[in-house]
Amino acid sequence: AYESPRFMGGIKFYAQQGEDSSREFAVKYAKNGWRANAWVSDFGDTDNDLDPQANIDGNATPGFFGAQSGRGVLAGYKHKSGVNFTATYGESDLVNNSQRDFINGKLGYTKGKHAASVSLGQYGSKSAQGLAGANHDRTTVAYHYAPTKGVRLWIQATQGDTEGQKSFNSFAIGGMVQL
Nearest-5° angle of CA 68, CA 171, CA 75? Predict the structure, then answer.
């Protein structure tokens, strides 16, 4: 992965080469609390075979790893009070020639070592023939704590709804140590 130094008052270029010829490129901007990103990804040869995640939940839908490529944009602002918001839109092309898209909005508050947020997202799909698939809405509440530099802990709860079925719920606790 490569991330350039900032230039022209807040712009960075990001590039990554991964296994199986995967690539990601992004342009990032951050200045005075504002941030914006635009990215494109090519997931390489990782999914040219049958997707092992395709039927993990008994649904006949390709899992996350069914994506061939993707692109998206993000815009956000963090006020000096700690209140922040982010909006994201993205699309992906799947190996079965279908497509997925998503739009997500997040409202958060960050103060010192603590951060809390709520995000709302809507995910759609379209078959290879152009027919609309099921819509999926998701709500996530999260709390992050960074007790010291390089250490992060988090907890989050997510509820998803696929066209009135209350189809997805998760609860996660995690952490990360950067060396």
Answer: 50
